[in-house]
Write a structure and sequence with these properties.
This protein is an alpha/beta fold. The protein is built from 12 helices and 16 strands. The chain has an 8-stranded mixed sheet, with helices on both faces. A 4-stranded antiparallel sheet has the order 10-12-8-13, with helices on one face. A two-stranded antiparallel ribbon has the order 7-14. A hairpin with a 3-residue loop joins strand 1 and strand 2. Helix 2 runs antiparallel to helix 4 and helix 4 packs across helix 12. The longest helix is centred in the last third of the chain and has 21 residues.
């Protein structure tokens, strides 16, 4: 079966919604205008169970089906990125330094399209909870929604989300049971030594050479402590120290990112980081303090729900256009917080031959919207049939 014909009728309308959102990007938790736009559309569709201000600017809307039944949750992220846009499009960002470079404008549009169809047809039992979320890009808006009790309050039993993927043809889906995106943690290290004139290094306790050695030692963790079958990345991305050619500084700072899929591997790597930071500093006569900032946990798909979601996608775009063998990404996604609480699945939907995500030339392909909206709608109708 191709896309839902009725949703196909919304194509031009959805294009207008998406381009309006694209031209008016907002970042982090400050998605109030986007939320207002979403609420206006939901009210037009005849949906009156709408909760606003969730996780500061998020929206949760409930559509009642026909007859008693469970509640299924569908999530879309609304926030943009703090970066300039260089597409030259007629609907280019009007908010300087802000851009929908990850396609969340498209994600919101796809869920709105599904909302319009589901509100019009109500060809399902139970309820559907539409979750329009702010602050996916670093703020953990999904975590805030979960902690505010959104899933519990509305008795959501399973959850689904989509993310567009440049390079995958339009009309294709890909996912995988189990881990699909990594957990992310951020490391900050401050090394304190004793500065001196560079001509008299013997009078210093040099934090620079300590930092260089520490970086090299940290790079041994993945290669020598992690089972090669467990994908792990520890990347040192910044070293800050010094201010002049002839001065050995007092301090040096290191920043890094850790990406893991397995909780036991993560715990082991964190312990090794502490050993290396403290041990290397001691070896050079320095002192060191480190902080590890918890980021998003790994995004782990429920196997049964993932095969179910893939079957729904196959019914829309054809079996040959859906894969359940996606290579897990070392990127991170805060939908993981919802999947930690409820079974469900996260899928990628093809955006075609476009610029990559988080690129100043990126744009969401409007032809994708009808496929995504059809998927969301069919997930509900298939999971909770009359």
């Amino acid at each position: 079966m191709p896309i839902i014909n009725r949703i196909g009728d919304y194509h031009e309308e959805m294009k207008g919604w998406r381009r309006h959102i694209h031209a008016n990007p907002e970042i982090m938790f400050d998605c109030h205008e986007t939320a207002d736009f979403v609420v206006e559309r939901l009210k037009e569709f005849g949906i009156d169970q709408i909760e606003t201000g969730v996780a500061t600017s998020g929206v949760v809307a409930i559509i009642e089906g026909q007859g008693a039944g469970p509640t299924i949750g569908l999530r879309a992220d609304m926030d943009a990125l703090p970066m300039p846009e260089e597409t030259g499009l007629e609907y280019q960002s009007t908010n300087s330094g802000k851009m929908h470079a990850c396609g969340h404008d498209g994600h919101t549009t796809m869920l709105l399209g599904a909302a319009k169809y589901l509100a019009e047809t109500r060809n399902f039992k139970g309820r559907v909870a539409l979750m329009f979320q702010p602050a996916e890009e670093g703020g953990g808006g999904a975590d805030v929604m979960v902690k505010q009790g959104v899933l519990d309050k509305h008795n959501v039993e399973q959850v689904y989300a989509l993310h567009n993927l440049p390079g995958l043809p339009v009309g294709h889906f890909t996912t995988v049971p189990g881990p699909i995106m990594a957990a992310v943690d951020t490391l900050d290290v401050t090394i304190t030594g004793k500065g001196s004139h560079a001509a008299y290094p013997h009078e210093s306790v040099d934090p620079v050479i300590c930092a260089v050695s520490m970086v090299q030692n940290l790079q041994s963790v993945v290669s020598r402590n992690v089972d090669p079958m467990h994908q792990t990345v520890l990347s040192v991305t910044q070293i800050h120290t010094g201010s002049a050619h002839n001065v050995i500084p007092d301090t040096a700072k290191i920043q890094a990112t850790l990406r893991t899929f397995d909780v036991d591997v993560r715990a082991m790597v964190i312990a090794r980081i502490a050993d290396i930071v403290n041990g290397t500093a001691a070896a050079f006569g320095c002192k060191a303090a480190h902080e590890l900032w918890d980021g998003y946990p790994a995004t782990v798909n429920d196997p049964n729900k993932t095969h179910f979601a893939a079957d729904v996608a196959k019914a829309i775009v054809g079996e040959e256009n859906v894969s359940v063998e996606a290579v897990p990404s070392m990127g991170a996604e805060d939908f993981s917080f919802m999947l930690n609480e409820r079974p469900g699945s996260y899928l990628f939907i093809g955006n075609g031959d476009t610029a990559m995500l988080h690129n100043t030339a990126y744009d969401f392909d409007d032809d994708v919207s009808v496929h995504g909206a059809s998927f969301f709608a069919k997930v509900v109708e298939t999971a909770q049939p009359l």
